[in-house]
Amino acid sequence: MASTNVNDTTNSNQLASSRPLPPDQISPKAVVLRVFQIKHVFRRNWKLLLILVAVGGVIGFIYDLAHKKKITYTGTILFNLGGGGSSSGGLPGDLGQLAGAFGLNSGAPDANIFVGDNFLIYAKSRPVVEKTLMKNDTINGKDTLLVNYYIRHSGIRDDEWENNDSLRAFYFKKPKVATEYTKMEQVVMSDIYTRIETEMTVKQPERKSSFMELSSFMQDEKLAATFLTNHLKTIEEDYQRKQTKKTSEMYELLTSRADSLAQLLTGTENKLAQYMDQNQQVVVAKARITENKLTRNSGFLTTLFYQALQQADNMRLSLIRETPLFTIIKPVYFPLYREVLATIGMQIGIIFGLIISIIVIFLRETYRSVMKEE
């Protein structure tokens, strides 16, 4: 009976060791065999691998030689926004203005386009960029439309417009607003803005600081510096106009009202003087009533006129107090930072050569295994 138990135990161990693994599991032995198979595959095909990788690298190297290295110039303006009298986020005066403009206030997001991240998006928006490009500036001693200088010196004609003779020869004859663009001008401005989006950044250098940094990196040094300077002026002008829009409208309304009252007062006073000259010796009650009426109207209009003047002066002071102030902390300094952008054709060629070699080796080994089975 004892021998029977020993045999049964031995047979059960042999069955357990020879039992196949489930299909979703891999044994360590299979892993080792696979590694040795890859080793043999590499020994058989290492020359092919090196040749294809070398060919890809040589092709990429030739591409790098045929294409010029791009040079970019980076300019930066550091500025501060303040001077407005309105409040933001419950903070008074300039402190509230800065807190709102640079996202330092707490609470719900503000719908104002000059608050927080809205300002960063606004500064790079197409309408503001187009206003900058339509400015005239003195470049190399000549009064030049900035958009035309950009077309000639930004590299857009050699990159985006290389195969389009019409666009390469295009230029703007005079400054225009967006509503006056022709179809060709719309296409040109669209391509220019798409390129400038990648050449300009607006950011806050430090989260706790109220300073803002406007940067551009272009292929021409004077273009980068001129664009930065004019774009900051455009942002300042547009910002001030929008921030003081309501106050300006109220000031114009009060000024117009004061002018109208001045005209009415002058007419009433002239009528009163004329009536008094014509009726100096008259003692009729009706004449006295008319004179008193004109005198009362003149006094009433005088009071309204002086009140309108006072309100207009107060609104003008409010307009000055609410006008935001852009303070340039660090202007553009020459020479700008120069950077040479090298091409990466050789690296890409090596990667493509490696990928192609892997595919070729896989097909070759597959064909070899099929032929062995047959």
UniProtKB/TrEMBL annotation:
Q: Where is the signal peptide?
A: none
- Asked if the record carries the keyword Membrane, the reply is yes
Q: Which UniProt keywords apply?
A: Membrane, Transmembrane, Transmembrane helix
According to the record, the residues making up region (Disordered) are 1-22
Superkingdom of the source species:
Bacteria
Q: Which residues cross the membrane?
A: 48-66, 340-363
Q: Among its keywords, does the record have Metal-binding?
A: no
Write out the biased-composition intervals (Polar residues).
1-17
What is the protein's given name? Lipopolysaccharide biosynthesis protein
Q: Which organism is it from?
A: Spirosoma flavum
- Highest lineage ranks of the organism? Bacteria, Pseudomonadati, Bacteroidota, Cytophagia, Cytophagales
